[in-house]
Write a structure and sequence with these properties.
Elements (H helix, E strand, L loop, with lengths): L1 H10 L1 H10 L4 H12 L1 H14 L13 H29 L9 H18 L8 H27 L3 H31 L9
Helix pairs in contact: 1-2, 2-7, 3-6, 4-5, 5-6, 5-8, 6-7, 7-8
Length: about 200
Amino acid sequence: MFLQHMMGILYHPKSEWGVIRKEHYSTVHVFLAQISILAAIPAVSLFIGTTQVGWSVAGGEFVKLDVTSALMAGVAFYFAMWVAVGIIAYSIYWMERTYGGKVSFEECLVLTTFTATPLFLSGIVGLYPMLWFNVAVGGLALLYSVYLLRIGVPIIMQITEDRAFLFFCSVLTVGLCVLVGLMATTALLWGTVIPLSYTS
């Protein structure tokens, strides 16, 4: 069912949000059956790309990472995405009363997970880790995720359109802050706790 919803949210999001709203998922199910799979896409892709192809800024010289180093970085990044999704979902749950929402944490987690699906899927470009290409694809995925959030908030949170827009802006702000925080933390870890080692 998850794969069906994932395709639906990409091709006909408005009607798919309505279908998702009628179903109920536990927190454990969302993390183990959905986020665990989605988060693996960018983590595994980047591991393969940086160790087998190497990364490049503009398509010039490619630099490969040591397998052990890339594995440690990939595992850390994988679980960091779990934490990021959890923080955003909890923030939505914490803010919802202000905007008239009365849904469970699980529904907030579902909203977060399906909204972030394009970002997770775009991680496949990590198989060819050229910086400008990855940034371009990631930027397009981010725009589509923002669109999904905009139309998903009033449906999942069951609030009026005027309040939904304000809530959307608040969630978007939190999401972007978490995204920037994730990137900064990743860079910090790579420079200190999990230093990257290169083979070429």
